[in-house]
Design brief:
By secondary structure, the protein is mainly alpha-helical. Helices cover about 75% and strands about 5% of the residues. The radius of gyration is 17 Å and the shape is globular.
């Protein structure tokens, strides 16, 4: 646990959330929704990137997952400092409520903009927004149980 001006961040929980989110993304996009996602994105589902491209993509995904978990840990730590904050809720309610508010406030509008301005389909919206919701809940719960 590190303390940054009163915000306590559990680095181990951040690393665990990073790994779990990475695995969730692989299951979501490579197993559960590979064919519909690839079709909606205009990709050939049989195309496989080269080893070098795959290694780069994995590394960038891990960095992105770490940044998401790290910043979300600060979000939760900030809520923890408010009177009547998570101490009045259990970790489950605190994590779920925090995840839902972040998803509604950040991911949902971003994905809606992609439908409106980038002409993404509603099917792609549901796949991506669904992943964002599940990933945000999972990361929030891991972090909420660690504070």
């Amino acid at each position: 646990m590190i303390d940054l001006n009163g915000l306590q961040i559990n680095v181990i929980a951040v690393l665990i959330a990073t790994a779990v989110n990475f695995i969730l993304a692989m299951v979501w996009y490579a197993k559960l929704f590979m064919k519909p996602w690839a079709k909606e994105m205009g990709y050939d589902p049989n195309m496989r990137p080269s080893g070098k491209v795959m290694a780069r993509n994995i590394a960038l995904s891990l960095v992105g997952n770490f940044l998401f978990a790290w910043v979300f840990a600060f979000y939760l730590a900030g809520w923890r400092l408010l009177p009547g904050g998570p101490s009045e809720f259990g970790a489950l309610a605190f994590g779920f409520n925090s995840a839902l508010s972040a998803w509604i406030g950040f991911f949902l509008p971003m994905n809606l903009s992609r439908v409106v301005w980038e002409k993404h389909s509603w099917k792609l919206f549901l796949i991506n927004s669904g992943y964002n919701l599940v990933a945000t809940v999972v990361v929030a719960l891991i972090l909420a149980y660690s504070i």
